[in-house]
Design a protein that fits this description.
The protein is α/β, with parallel strands linked by helices. It is built from ten helices and ten strands. The structure holds adenosine-5'-triphosphate (ATP), magnesium ion and fe (iii) ion (FE). Its EC number is 2.3.1.234.
């Protein structure tokens, strides 16, 4: 079963081809291509939805052609066309959904709308060392921060989530305050390498709340307060403040993940989403989990942020598991807001 996957929920256009192999076998990635709009949005300090939609339209078919060529396949070989149905920017989602359904109708092939977060969640299955169910998942992206119990494809239970900002948002907003541009997560973490993480005392919100929820909105306020207090000294202390910010975010993520492991008794953790690329998070989680003989799985670094491969993979795994059937309903809709547990079985 050859699946074409299209991602266009935000500021990355991603297209990929995945081969489903049936049964429990992990589907294989044949090729994927990505165009990031980061450079285009940078001047505005964030994603401009209208520009994002227009750029997806320009990119999606050339990327599809590139992926087919790389995989040595023709469009007519595609069995199912999958696309990100939500959550995300409505106009951006409509581009991927519209193109996918048009391709499906033209080829007389069924289509499948995929949940973007299920794509992130299952992205570690694209790695050379894929996880096995069940596991605890820490989903840390630009728009979401959740701990989940995952018993199989489509079997998702949310254990805790952020009550305000996402972890990626905490990175991005703090980075913006420090003048590190957009998206600031990777830049802040690079600068933090040269700083002293103990230099500033920053809050660890909800660390001792006794549940698995997160809160990061207060952290950016604390960073702003520190930055203001430093005044002219800020430039010289920026790396220290970046390191302290990163340490605060990572400590909360690690401690809550360990609490989720204790609560569920699981021996496996999966980290997914853009913040899963963070080096300190990987180091600290690996060390804490090794001490407990718990295995941790990550997506490959270049597949932590948005991409088409995870969408094609999620579609393949849903089809193989019988969770969902592709359909010829080309009267598509998108779901800009769509909680992940809404698709749980
Ligand atoms: P969502 O998936 O919730 O809709 P999104 O698609 O925008 O949101 P992702 O693409 O998964 O999110 O991840 C982007 C986020 O990851 C950004 O906030 C970015 O700053 C953050 N990020 C990427 N790399 C790193 C890193 N090395 N350290 C910290 N944060 C990072
Ligand atoms: Mg993005
Ligand atoms: Fe994402």
């Amino acid at each position: 079963l050859l699946i074409l996957g299209i991602e266009s929920s935000c500021d990355e256009t991603g297209v990929a081809l995945v081969r489903g192999r049936g049964g429990d076998a992990v589907p294989t990635l044949l090729a994927h291509a990505l165009h990031s709009q980061i450079a285009m949005h940078q001047d505005y300090g964030g994603v401009v939805p209208e520009l994002a939609s227009r750029d997806h339209i320009r990119r999606v078919l050339p990327l599809t052609e590139a992926v087919l060529a790389e995989a040595g396949q023709r469009l007519a070989d595609v069995d199912v066309v999958a696309y990100t149905r939500g959550p995300g920017l409505a106009g951006a989602l409509l581009v991927g959904a519209g193109v996918a359904c048009a391709l499906g109708a033209a080829l007389d092939r069924p289509v499948l709308g995929v949940h973007h977060l299920e794509g992130h969640l299952l992205s570690p299955f694209l790695s050379s060392d894929p996880p096995e169910f069940p596991f605890v998942a820490l989903l840390v992206s630009g728009g979401h921060t959740q701990l989940m119990r995952v018993d199989g494809v489509g079997r998702y239970e949310i254990l805790g989530e952020t009550i305000d900002d996402a972890a990626g948002e905490a990175f991005d907003k703090s980075a913006k305050l420090l003048g590190l541009g957009y998206p600031g997560g990777p830049a802040l973490s690079r600068l933090a390498e040269q700083g002293d993480a103990k230099a500033f005392k920053l809050p660890r919100p909800l660390l001792h709340s006794g549940d698995l929820d997160f809160s990061f909105a207060g952290l950016k306020t604390a960073v702003l307060t520190q930055a203001k207090k430093l005044g002219d000294e800020l430039a010289a202390r920026k790396a220290d403040l970046a390191a302290s910010t990163q340490a605060a975010i990572v400590e909360v993520l690690v401690r809550k993940t360990l609490a989720a492991i204790d609560q569920t008794g699981m021996r496996r953790v999966v980290v997914a989403g853009g913040v899963g690329a963070n080096r300190l998070l990987r180091e600290q989680l690996d060390a804490a989990c090794a001490a407990r003989r718990v295995r941790v799985h990550y997506p490959e670094l270049h597949l932590c942020t948005d991409n088409g491969a995870m969408i094609a993979m999620a579609a393949a795994m849903r089809l193989q598991s019988g969770q969902q059937q592709a359909n010829r309903n080309y009267a598509f809709d998108v779901k800009p807001r769509w909680p992940l547990d809404a698709i749980a079985s």
